[in-house]
Structures are given as structure tokens and as C-alpha cells.
Amino acid sequence: MPMTAYEVLRPDRNLSCVVFASPHSGRDYAGSFLRRTVLDEHAIRSSEDAFVDLLFDCAPRFGASFIRAGAPRAFIDLNRSPEELDPAVIDGVARQSHNPRVASGLGVIPRVVANGRAIYRGKLSLGEAELRIERYWRPYHAKLQELLSQAHRRHGQAVLIDCHSMPHEAMDGVARGGMRRPDVVLGDRFGAAASGEVVDRVEAAFADAGFVVTRNSPFAGAYITQAYGRPSRGQHAVQIEIDRALYMNERLIRPNGDFEAVQAALQQVVAEVAQIGQGQIPLAAE
């Protein structure tokens, strides 16, 4: 089993209502897990948001908290509902109504990694799946909500920035007609998860740092954005997807020569986003 469900990096002074999170960059691949999978230690990492935590771990320097997962996505997916159990990989789970994520093997206990490669040869027991949820999923989400509630109490609102990365090929169908290829996709579930004011501020921060930004296509936000985005209650959630090719070699899963430059640009983004709501009246609910 991975050692920890999460790690929280806290600022010396809580100046921001923003909480940054990285649920898919966990890379604690326990030996017991690696012995269960049919994939090698490189292939098992293909669905990981590699190094995203290193791109955003500057958040405490700007008065914001940052929570990152310890367990890898291939072991448990923190951006899924605990009810999204896949009967094709978990023994004893009844088939439910059609869920495209579960059907594709990407439930809370994933069946596959990138390109549909199977993680296991057989099935896991329901007890093992429930143990993973209890030890990793529930603690992560309890701490995430605690951080958001603390931010809301201090500042009158809370903003979750849920940080992810996307394969370069994910944008192949978006960059057409001479438009510049987007570097970043912001997902607010088409306005349901965050106020327009918040998303405008986040988009402006990326644009100011030189990134090409689009919204909600092809990623509008998954479970976390849906579960935590409550703009009518002053709790906003925005998912960020960054093109991996900007900062890493996707095939080798290694930082590329532009990693430090992208990291510096994102530091500028984090600094600007962390200022949301500072010294202002609470953001208007929508």
C-alpha cells in the first residue's frame, strides 16, 4: 500500500481563499501494487499527471494551501465518485446504469491506464476496493473539504483550483481552422462549478503568462469539479488541464528542457490566481 493518502503544503500565513490540489500526480507505487499489475514500472505511470505537483507546489509562497495525492491514479482515482465501481475489475459489484467512465475502465479503481492497457490479469475483491477507498479516497476528500471550509470561514469564499495534465494529442481535434493550439483547458462544467468572475480571473492569469487557453472542450471537469463547485454557496471549483508536451517528454515520463521555464510561468499564474478575493468583499454568487 502507498504510504500516505495525501500531503498538504500550508502557507506561513493564510492570505488566500484559493486552495490548489493535484489528485493525479501521486507516484508512490508500492511493491505490493506493482506485483499485482501486469504492467511494468514505466507503463503503469502512463495515466499519471506526472510532475504536476512540482509545477504548483509554489502555492504556499503566495498564501494558498496545496494538497497533493500520495497514491497513484492507477491505484485509485481521486477524481471519481466512490460509487463508480467497475464490475469488470471488481468481483461482486453489480452492474449499474451506463456510466461512460466506468465503461471505459476509468472508475474509482481503474481497470486500464492510457491507451486502454489493462492493469490486472484478473479481478480484485470488493473488500480490497473498499479498503483503498477508505484508506486513500476518503481521507483525501475529507482534507480537501476541510481546507475549503477553512478558506471560506477566513475569507467569505473558497476557490478550488484542481490541477491536471493532458496528453498532447488530446487537443488534436481542437486546434483547427488556423487557430492557435490551446496549452490549457479550464473546466467549470459550463458555468455550473464556478462564477464567471472566478473563471475570468483564472483565464486572465494564464493568458498574462503566455499560455493559450480554452474552456470546457474537451475537458469540462469531472467528479471533483462537480462535487465541490457550489458557486451559490461561495465555493468555486475550476479544473485545469495543461498540455504535458510543454514541460515533459511524454514517452519517457521525464521533464524536458522547458520544464523550468514552464514552472516559472506557472509560478506567475499561481501568484495571480492566489490573489482572487484578497482585500475584497466576497465574490458574488451566481
Gist of the model:
This is N-formylglutamate deformylase. It holds the Pfam family FGase. The protein is of the alpha/beta class and 286 residues long.
Oligomer: single chain
Work out the helicity level.
25-40%
- Which topology does CATH recognise? Aminopeptidase
Largest sheet: 7 strands, mixed
Mean residue pLDDT = 93
- Count of DSSP E strands? 9
Helix segment count? 7
Strand content: 15-25%
The CATH fourth-level homologous superfamily = Zn-dependent exopeptidases
Round the Cα radius of gyration to an integer and report it.
18 Å
Major beta sheet, strand line-up:
1-3-2-4-7-5-6
Uncertain parts: none
Output the CATH class name. Answer: Alpha Beta
What is the molecular shape? globular
Distance between the termini: 42 Å
Protein name: N-formylglutamate deformylase
InterPro entries: N-FG_amidohydro
Organism: Sulfitobacter delicatus
Word description of this protein:
By secondary structure, the protein is α/β, with parallel strands linked by helices. The protein has helices spanning 31-36, 52-56, 100-103, 126-155, 196-208, 223-228, 259-273, and strands spanning 6-9, 18-22, 65-69, 158-166, 184-187, 213-215, 235-243, 248-249, 254-255. It is 28% helix and 15% strand. The strands form two sheets. A seven-stranded mixed β-sheet has the order 1-3-2-4-7-5-6, with helices on both faces. A two-stranded antiparallel ribbon has the order 8-9. Strand 8 (248-249) and strand 9 (254-255) form a beta hairpin. It is globular, with a radius of gyration of 18 Å. It comes from Sulfitobacter delicatus.
